[in-house]
Write a structure and sequence with these properties.
The structure is a homodimer.
Chain A (H helix, E strand, L loop, with lengths): L13 H16 L4 H12 L4 E2 H8 L3 H13 L3 E4 L8 E4 L4 H31 L3 H32 L2
Helix pairs in contact in A: 1-2, 2-4, 3-4, 5-6
The first copy, chain A, binds a DNA duplex through helix 4.
DNA sequence: CATTCATTTCATTTTTTATTGAAAAAATCA
DNA sequence: TGATTTTTTCAATAAAAAATGAAATGAATG
């Protein structure tokens, strides 16, 4: 009980910083907050599993941010728990398969929107039927174009997925 | 000077609302604010060109939001100005080519990040060289994986673009 | 099973982003 | 040109999103 838990300086290497900045930037693209990018970036280049406290100390983020960020990353499969024998704390490693983010984005963001959009298009066609002739024609043309785009999107997605999932 | 400019009720049809909601949802995906989705959605189904005031009245958005939203939409080519003879105000129509949004996103968001990322990867390789043997190996493996992914992304983009641009 | 340590949850605060509207600038018209 | 209308800009405000940290929950240890 003598050696006190002196606050570790917990520095980040230049390599760490590059990785972190890179992932902040890319994950923002799919709507993920900075803290998630930080966590994943650090884990991506970490030579060994890190505990939540390691992450908090080195990234200077709060308990809540660390816990929530890890939860999210686990939920998309981008981070795995590693049971370190003799250690009380859970330790985490990055799953290096970056397609995890893309597939999660497609499943959680894109596909639901596409589905809702298809329902909308049907409703829109219903509304367009009740318009007067001249306007109806252009309305249908435009709705048709929307449909065309959704179909195109739905055709492209599986292809993109196949391309992404190594 | 008798007939006063009584505030128009400026209702939105059910069709308008479906279109607006749909575009709010999709454009948010590429980082565009709600007001931009509203404007484009309304123009997309409008049977005739609308003025900025039309948009403000019907969408209940401010002058600033209308002006800035139109500016952005024009800048990506998603909205065109139509000169209505005898009319003082500019009128706007939607360019129905939805790929405009995708290409703008790729040019303005994706590509710049990819370029920065490639520079980062080079720097990271430099840093990794100065690490001790055991850590160096894994570091290089991971950086290699990043490179692999960027290349894959860069290969896929032109293909996606070709697919999108009808 | 009681205590300690680790993690999650969530109300609050902070930060970021979007919207507003008044003032400036630009365009139109007589 | 000068009066008037339209559009842009931007500082202030409002709204949305993210981060914080204290309290609740859940595990591990002895």
């Amino acid at each position: 009980m003598a050696g006190e838990a002196v606050e570790e300086q917990a520095r980040l290497s230049e390599l760490d910083i590059e990785a972190i900045e890179m992932f902040i930037s890319f994950l923002k693209l799919v709507g993920l907050p900075k803290s998630v990018g930080e966590i994943y970036g650090l884990l991506f280049v970490a030579p060994c599993p890190l505990s939540m406290e390691d992450l908090m100390d080195r990234l200077q983020i709060s308990l809540g941010a660390a816990s929530q960020g890890l939860k999210l990353l686990r939920s998309v499969g981008a981070v795995k728990v590693v049971y370190a024998p003799g250690e009380r704390r859970d330790h985490y490693v990055a799953d290096l398969e970056l397609s995890k983010f893309a597939t999660a984005f497609i499943k959680e963001e894109l596909n639901p929107r596409l589905e809702r959009a298809l329902q909308r298009v049907e409703r829109m066609e219903g509304f367009a039927k009740g318009m007067d002739p001249k306007e109806r024609k252009t309305a249908f043309q435009r709705i048709e174009r929307l449909k065309h785009w959704m179909e195109r999107g739905q055709k492209m997605l599986p292809w993109v997925l196949k391309f992404l999932v190594s």
